């Protein structure tokens, strides 16, 4: 049995009025009148029945108002309820479906642009650099501080303005810089950036990006220093070497010429990267490896060696909420480049790297670094514990906090997180169960209002020896097949299967036929509901016609026409 492809909207309004998507205006009016006679609230005196009728009558009337309006119906046919609820409106009356679709696409793009332009994306970092040895020597504990901020302001779909700045204080020295970038998307594979920076190294620059093949990209930049007139060129090439490995080469020509070769590898559980850099005044190599223990926690090992640095770090992090992550990193080594010098090097190349400026700093000894990442914001706190490279001290400084951290994780944080996850999962299941229970109750109430007319139609068919639905089940494919041989539904089956004998008898025509239209999800039929969202569903129908027994099963979106001889048992 072949399954019919499932449309996105399920054509629920057509199912509700038991109509074909090609139904005429007269067929829509006739279906509405039929259901309105049954569900009109004035027909019922009992308060509960009146409430049920009011709720279902409103559904019928809403469906009729949409399907009887030519423009609304065409919007619904193209975009479903999402198109009607998104606030899209048509101007002059358009007759052709192509014109309707073109107008809707245009209005949708305009709304997407308005939404796009309404969102500026700010990012920022703050570093507070502490030194315990400096404090013990009688000086302040704060060794330096830096902050940076950047805001991306889309001005159109192809143009973005980026405004940023940073301030850095290191001991008695300080500096700052401000920059503005205009990024223009030339095409789907190319873009260009114009940048101006004022500060320690005032410069103007231009940078182009282009995807030169499905697996390769190239970036070229030109920077002009406004202080000494020096010109710096930068080029970078990136190549996708395999599904999860990327290689890159970077070349800088100018006052500090250099070349670097690097690679990155990332998969679901691991991430690694490394590079080697050679310059006119320095050389170095670095590498890092990150292991993702779960979707919430990871460990990291990194190291650098070269003429300006020799250090090793190990640590880890954990996601504490949807947008927040904390990290603890232990570092031991020597790094002779200061924050101010790092600022100079980066500006000479003409590529502002705010994160590098902020996190960079003089490291001589043993330190811990604490980080908090929240959305696009970062708080970084490096704490220099000792400038002494004593092996016992270095081991103790690493072992004691790490042990405390793992004990805390094992006996407090992890059990608490597991408890929260189980609680959230339980709440989610309870919410879904509550929604399904309410939907089942609403379907049963709708069936109760259909029952009198359904029984009259059934009795009329019995008198004429016509079409009578004796058993009809809708729900989980597997459970429906299991229950097809049984006359009773056990609790396990009943929760995923709905008896729809009453609504199907109601839909039998005076001529003794039942027709369900192709491409329309059956859970939208009045008196139906979806008892197992996301699972494949099946409709089982057993019926009698001219004294003979018949049986048929159809998929959720498949058409059904009975009686037919091929269904005879």
UniProtKB/TrEMBL annotation:
Residues 12-80 form the J domain. Residues 419-449 form a coiled coil. SMART domains: DnaJ (SM00271). This is J domain-containing protein. PROSITE patterns: DNAJ_1, DNAJ_2. Gene3D superfamilies: DnaJ domain. GO terms for cellular component: endoplasmic reticulum; membrane. CDD domains: DnaJ. It comes from Oryza rufipogon (Brownbeard rice). InterPro entries: AtJ13, DnaJ-like_C11_C, DnaJ_domain, DnaJ_domain_CS, DNAJC11-like_beta-barrel, J_dom_sf. It is found in: Membrane. Keywords: Chaperone, Coiled coil, Membrane. It holds the Pfam family DnaJ. GO terms for biological process: response to very low light intensity stimulus; vegetative to reproductive phase transition of meristem.
